[in-house]
TrEMBL record:
Coiled-coil boundaries: 305-366
PANTHER family found in the cross-reference section: NEPHROCYSTIN-3, TETRATRICOPEPTIDE REPEAT PROTEIN (AFU_ORTHOLOGUE AFUA_6G03870)
Organism, as annotated: Fluviicola taffensis (strain DSM 16823 / NCIMB 13979 / RW262)
Transmembrane segments: 363-384
Name listed for the protein in its UniProt record: Protein serine/threonine phosphatase
Annotated ranges, domain PPM-type phosphatase: 432-658
TPR repeats: from-to residues: 166-199
Top-level taxon in the UniProt lineage: Bacteria
SUPFAM superfamilies for the chain: TPR-like
The keyword Repeat is assigned to this record: yes
PROSITE patterns cross-referenced by the UniProt entry: TPR (PS50005)
InterPro entries assigned to the protein according to its UniProt record, in alphabetical order: PPM-type-like_dom_sf, PPM-type_phosphatase-like_dom, TPR-like_helical_dom_sf, TPR_rpt
Record SMART domains: PP2C_SIG, TPR
Amino acid sequence: MYYCDVKNSLLTITLLLFFVPCWGQTNGMDSIYQLGKAEKNIKKKLLLFNKTINYGWYYGEYDKAIRIGKESLKLAHKYKHDSIAALIDNNIGIAYDYKGEYYKALSHFFTALDVAEKINDTRNQSYILSNIGLIYNTQGINDKALLYHQKSLQLRRKLKVKEGISASITNIAIVLMDTKQYEKAIHYYMEALSIDKELGDSIGLGDDYSNIGVCFQEQKQYKKAEYYHLKSLRIREKMGSIPSICNSKLNLGVVAIKQGKLKEGKKYLHESKEFFEKIGQKEALRFIYQSYSELGEKQGNYKLAFEYLKKLNKIKEELADAKNIREQTQQEMNYQFDKEREQQRIEKVKSNLENKKKQEQALIINLAIAIVGIMILIFSIILYRRWNEVKKQKVIIEEKNRQVEEKNHEILDSINYAKRIQTAILPSVQLLERVLPEHFVLYEPKDIVAGDFYWLEETKDSIIFAVADCTGHGVPGAMMSVVCHNALNRSVKEFGLRNPGEILDKTREIIVDELSKNQQDVFDGMDISLCAWNKATNQISWAGANNPLWIWKKQSKEIVEIKPNKQPIGKHFDMKPFTSHLVELEKGDRIYLITDGYADQFGGLESKKFKAKNLKNLIIQISNEKIHQQVNILKSTFFEWRGNLEQIDDVCIMGIEIE
């Protein structure tokens, strides 16, 4: 990747880090710390200490910031100021990050995140998630970096904090650039650019234009790259930021030489080279030396080309050494972080056991006191036998209650373990995001385990996916879901079927066979909506059992419904072959696979069903929202409609936008 600037919310991690500690500012840090020590109010004292830590990492006093931070944490925990403790943990994490001790930084970030989630501090959560994503990005763990930046963006959109939204969007775009997904990166940068224009953020605008230019460089669209780099340079020249100006000139020099504008390219390279050599920025120098070598070759000046080729090779060796060190650091970070989290888990278990033991001892003492008191009050010769009988009955009842509680606990443990198994057979988030980039899944089981499930199988030429509603919910529904899930897998993998109607026919055959082994009539099964999507032709082949397919057409802004066969996947009095439907789709169209749980939910002012018609209208109303944002609206609408009423069924909706 060519050299570019990036921005973020709390940590300033860029491809070039222009951070020069201002050591004269440590007096200000000490002054604030002394004010904190003198302050009598504990909350104000802790906030002053937190500001001191912030000063520390900002001005390079990392060890002092960490020391003060750990002392402050003890005080915050002692007086149960959890929200301030989360702020302190976050700042300690930043200090460790600047020191390069990433596993310690992550440990403090995750501790802060746990507290912020516990007290529902959404704003602080968004900052911490962003910091975690930045560390993973720095270490090249891009999948985790993207996950945490997306979580941060989701919270910031909810909070409507535009500066934070712009920062998270930019962070996501950086990860996409690192993974060479330049078109997606440009899309995100354009969104950040729009927000920064609205905010009048000159620094952000300069970075946005520069990063968009770099994306076009990587795609060898040099005219577009030159256009955006020039816009970035004009903004940065007005601001007078020398590092940023040199950065833009470097990029313009590279682009000019690629286009054969040798004189212009040499001018830009010369103006940026002196600065980067002075500060020793190797990544920037690598592109400068490479471009000078290319310039010499194009001019026929092979002496110049050879001279800078040697410099380039030397820089590459130094960068390779740095990369090896970073990879080793990453391995150490993962090991140390896992080790520390495991130690924290063990300590937490010990603490819980100790608290439980104290509670049991207190309960025993209280119970003994109560029994003694009762004995003193009712003790008499006349009532002795009666009291003795009551006591015996009490022991019997307590034993029965204990046995019931043990059984309930065993049952609940089994159900929770069943949930883990059921969750494991569902498609992973990573698989869904890879094969269906523009999608959402709304999955709200009525109980711990569910009869509804969603399913996906990727073949060489198609993506086959479905949403299903098995008979019942809770444990019976979950058992049926495993049978039905296995039948779908066999139909596609073992029997090699690709046509939706044939898949449903074979699935029904397998399920009926599995449920008829003891020669009893079992009419359980499932309703399902199943698609096979040929992404090359954008053709959808679909079949349904009692569940329809909804298609929102981008051109008409309306929903087209394809009716299913009115029969379940299971034993039925009139079993017929399932019908396959071929659907032509256009870019921007959206398809929705649903079960009946959402529409059948009682709620509202009159405690009526939501109904499928209202669900259709809701989807049309939110059609202007991006597909992955619709799930939040659908979910909040569902719970607002339900109110305090009980959820009557599992809910599962899958939405996909055609790319």
